[in-house]
Design goal:
The complex is a heterodimer. By secondary structure, chain A is mostly helical. Chain A has helices spanning 4-27, 42-64, 73-111, 118-140, 147-153, and strands spanning 2-3, 33-34, 37-38, 69-71. Chain A has a two-stranded antiparallel ribbon with strand order 1-4. A two-stranded antiparallel sheet of chain A has the order 2-3. Chain B is mainly α. Chain B has a domain at 2-140 and 201-409 and 416-422. Chain B contains 21 helices and 2 strands. Chain B has helices at 2-14, 17-35, 41-48, 57-82, 91-102, 106-139, 144-161, 166-181, 206-225, 238-247, 252-267, 271-286, 298-314, 316-322, 328-339, 348-351, 353-384, 389-408, 411-429, 435-457, 469-495, and strands spanning 183-184, 191-192. In chain B, strand 1 and strand 2 (191-192) form a beta hairpin. In chain B, helix 3 (41-48) runs antiparallel to helix 4 (57-82) and helix 6 packs antiparallel against helix 17. Classes of the chains: A mainly alpha, B mainly alpha. Chains A and B meet through helix 1, strand 3, helix 2, helix 3 and helix 4 of A and helix 8, helix 9, helix 18, helix 19 and helix 20 of B.
Chain lengths: 155, 510
């Protein structure tokens, strides 16, 4: 459904606007030479300009490439099936915390499209946060976000 | 010889029970991330970083580098048995490795791959043993201008020899530089490029970028390709292992040539992926059986595997002696070195002799451990591939989210990681190279500091980059590499042939 041309052009537009933002924002830091040496905005400004120039070139090249489909409709569906739940999972972490979010995510991904039986999905979903807790909070001593819900309940 | 003495001293550090145990753990974890598509050596090493903060630096680097060897071997296992490259650098191994396995010679294919991989790694380590301290000695005389020139040369060689479209490489590099500049400027103390988000003052850690670019990005590519794990038999026949290893010396020329290509691509930051493709291509052209390549030819396995491991190993040489990593994974390890309070570069060879020679000695031992372990565990990890991808994929997403969060306990990093995932997918899809992006994030600051210090020394004159023979030749070499793609295009135009379109296998070079 998405042609190589569209993908090339939109990626170049994405990198180009990032470059523009970088260049504009570094002007505030000062560019060029002052008594203190090279101003702190110079390097990022140059990087920004190079990104913009390179993106313009890629944009031009991209616009000339063929319209062959590189991401078909079914590809897109599979990508969305992976990405959308992942984005939701990351989106709800501040509210319900890493543990509940990861359990819900595993369960949702496995049980809802009926990839796995309900029981198996439940077991995997329950084991995931337990494994996270043991490995990270116990072994690595990294506290994972418990979320606003846990805070409200007093954990 | 002094190096040999130091190396022997290194062995007394590497061959201790705790360090051997770390090697086994590292190699096994490495094979695991190597086997799983979507998790690779850069991710695996980043994930392990927080675990190493409390360790001695030499133990930490032994763990991380062993993981790297494990991942390099693990990637080949799935390439051969399932036709699924677990690592980008083992894509070329699928061309002849999988046909061999499919035609009933899985043991031959695996043993040949591991044998030539070990040979490639050995050549890489020997090179490091004899060359690294010499390079470091030369580099000790470097001032900021020379350092900047070396960085410049490294970046330029990505553009000139990386294999990806030059304009895309330049964009990827510059984006890396911009990301490295986010946060507090180390020289002036002013805050840069936070775009109004206060939390960005702490900067963007390379681990966050690696998790997204290589983890989520690779996963999106993998799910799109919708592979099916059709396993061929994964039983290992030990007699055939030794027979295949015994036949390796007959392919001595191919082994040596591939190792040379690998070492060259590893030291100049071409990286293992480019090395394995290049070596396969050259072997196909020069082998007397070149026509049969792609149908299960032994040399078609030897060439990419030897080069892959030679490049992966020798990528540590510039990291240790100059502070410039030769591959994405080496860049992550170098980030680790800085976190442990070590300063990668020539001073390591003077201040941290135990660290350097312990690491080099561990590379000899670690690769032997890796070959043995990978042969013993092939059936176990092959069974792992039968776990449905629908279970593995969300697990990898969770691991990446936790990994990004654990860097500095920041939720913003998790969101950035997801953003990097989208970028990683687009970049991979359109053959923008990822390694220079990561490299620029890790050493962008250092390159900038070197430039600004040399400008201070010269009071703003660019003449300092042409002040002596060494720095001039480095700069001229860098400019030549930058111009190389342009020159090649002009030559091609003069000859009247159209510039060839990206070949399908080039699409996957990172």
């Amino acid at each position: 459904m998405i042609s190589r041309r569209v993908l090339e052009v939109s990626t170049a537009a994405l990198t180009g606007s990032f470059g523009l933002a970088v260049a504009v924002s570094s002007i505030e830091n000062g560019i060029g030479w002052s008594t203190a040496g090279v101003d702190s905005g110079t390097f990022p400004f140059l990087a920004g300009v190079i990104i913009v120039l390179g993106s313009l070139y890629n944009f031009g090249r991209g616009a000339l490439t063929g319209a062959a489909v590189v991401v078909s409709r079914s590809d897109l569906r599979r990508i969305a099936a992976l990405f959308v739940p992942a984005a939701i999972f990351i989106g709800v972490i501040p509210a319900i915390g890493m543990y509940l979010a990861s359990a819900g995510y595993m369960f949702g991904v496995l049980a809802l499209p009926k990839h796995q039986s309900l029981l198996r999905s439940l077991i995997i979903a329950a084991l995931t946060p337990v494994a996270l807790y043991v490995v990270f909070e116990r072994l690595f001593l990294v506290t994972l976000p418990h979320g606003a819900l846990a805070a409200a309940l007093g954990f | 010889m002094e190096n040999i003495d130091l190396l022997l001293h290194g062995f007394t550090i590497a061959i201790t029970l705790p360090h051997l145990a770390l090697m086994v753990i590292g190699v096994l974890l490495g094979i695991l991330v190597g086997v799983l598509p979507g998790l690779g050596a850069p991710n695996g090493v980043s994930l392990l970083l927080p675990l190493t903060f409390g360790m001695q630096p030499v133990s930490a680097i032994i763990l991380l580098s062993s993981m790297y060897w494990g991942a390099l071997f693990g990637g080949s296992v799935t390439s051969i048995l399932f036709n699924i490259p677990g690592e980008p650098s083992s894509v070329a191994t699928t061309f002849d490795g999988y046909p061999m396995a499919r035609d009933g010679r899985p043991t031959t294919a695996l043993a040949t791959a591991f044998g030539s991989a070990a040979f490639g790694a050995l050549v890489g380590v020997i090179l490091i043993t004899f060359l690294a301290s010499w390079v470091a000695k030369v580099a000790l005389a470097f001032g900021p201008a020379e350092y900047f020139a070396v960085y410049f040369l490294a970046f330029a060689s990505f553009v000139g020899m990386g294999g990806a479209p030059p304009a895309k490489t330049i964009v990827a590099l510059a984006i890396g530089f911009a990301i490295a500049a986010i946060g507090i400027d180390t020289v002036s103390g002013s805050v840069r490029l936070t775009m109004g988000i206060d939390e960005l003052v702490k900067g963007v850690n390379f681990v966050v970028a690696v998790m997204g670019l290589f983890g989520i990005g690779e996963l999106l590519i993998a799910v799109e390709e919708e592979f099916h794990a059709r396993a061929v038999s994964s039983k290992i026949e030990w007699r055939e292992v030794f027979r295949a290893l015994g036949r390796l010396p007959w392919h001595g020329v191919a082994l040596l040539r591939s190792a040379a290509i690998g070492c060259w691509m590893g030291i100049t930051p071409g990286g293992p992926t480019a090395a394995s493709f290049m070596s396969y291509g050259i072997a196909k052209r020069f082998s007397s059986r070149g026509k049969h390549f792609g149908t299960g030819e032994v040399e078609g396995v030897i060439a990419p595997e030897t080069a892959d491991h030679a490049a992966g190993t020798s990528a540590l040489l510039p990291m240790l002696s100059l502070g410039i990593p030769g591959s994405a994974t080496a860049a992550v390890m170098m980030g680790g070195l800085m976190i442990w309070g070590l300063n990668p570069g020539p001073m390591l060879f003077i201040d941290q002799k135990d660290f350097v020679w312990g690491l080099i000695a561990s590379m000899y031992v670690g690769n032997i451990v890796a070959v043995v372990l990978v042969l013993l565990t092939v059936p176990v990890f092959a069974a792992l591939m039968r776990i449905p991808f629908v279970i593995i994929a969300p697990l990898i997403v969770i691991i990446c989210a936790v990994g990004a969060y654990s860097v500095s306990n920041s939720y913003l990093d998790v969101i950035l990681m997801l953003g990097f995932g989208v970028v990683g997918y687009l970049f991979k899809k359109l053959s923008y190279p990822l390694a220079p992006l990561v490299l620029a994030i890790v050493i962008g600051d250092k390159a900038e500091d070197a430039f600004r210090q040399s400008m201070l020394m010269s009071k703003g004159s660019l003449g300092i980059f042409f002040a002596n023979r060494l720095v001039t030749s480095l700069v001229v070499g860098g400019v030549a590499l930058l111009l190389l793609p342009l020159v090649l295009q002009v030559v091609r135009m003069l000859r009247g042939t159209a510039p060839d379109q990206a070949k399908p296998e080039e699409m996957r070079i990172t």
